[in-house]
Amino acid sequence: MLGRFRGVENDSLVFGDELHANMRFADEVSANTKRLVDEYIERAGLDPPPAEGDPAETVEPRIPDPLIRTMDWRACGIRSVVWCTGFTGDFTWVHLPGALNAVGQPVHADGVGAVPGLYFAGLDFGSTRKSGTIPALAEGAARLVERLVKGNATPSCMLGDSERKKGSEFPRSPLNLS
Fold this sequence. Notes:
Blueprint: E1 5-9, E2 12-15, H1 19-44, E3 70-72, E4 81-84, E5 108-109, E6 112-113, E7 118-121, H2 137-150, H3 161-166
Parallel strand pairs: 4-7
Antiparallel strand pairs: 1-2, 2-3, 5-6
């Protein structure tokens, strides 16, 4: 995971340094929500079944040390973007026709954007209930990477008839990253 994307400077992607604070905030919100549910159960006199472990909380985040603040996308060979976010993202900076719906949220199927070369992980209910959680980012990103490596990054529901006939070749990115 990296910090919040801040922009591009001199052909380098620039990330903020608030990753740890954002993760702490998400953990605090999760703990507070669980506490509120437990308090309600107690006040209402409910007898719920025993708590079960949540698989969304079992993935250890992988954070570079030190944090990566800049990345030369050309030197790193980056040709695609996997956008990972939680909560409701602000995608107003995405100026790609067809990438966003009428309310400004990504058009995607299981994280594969409607625009070839654009991918999303960490969106609420992107693939599963836990998709919008920080621990699920590694799982979602790994699933997208697997699709990219196998060359079937575009789901058939987003392919036109002529593309469907050709098979699911990896689409060339329109993001001007090469």
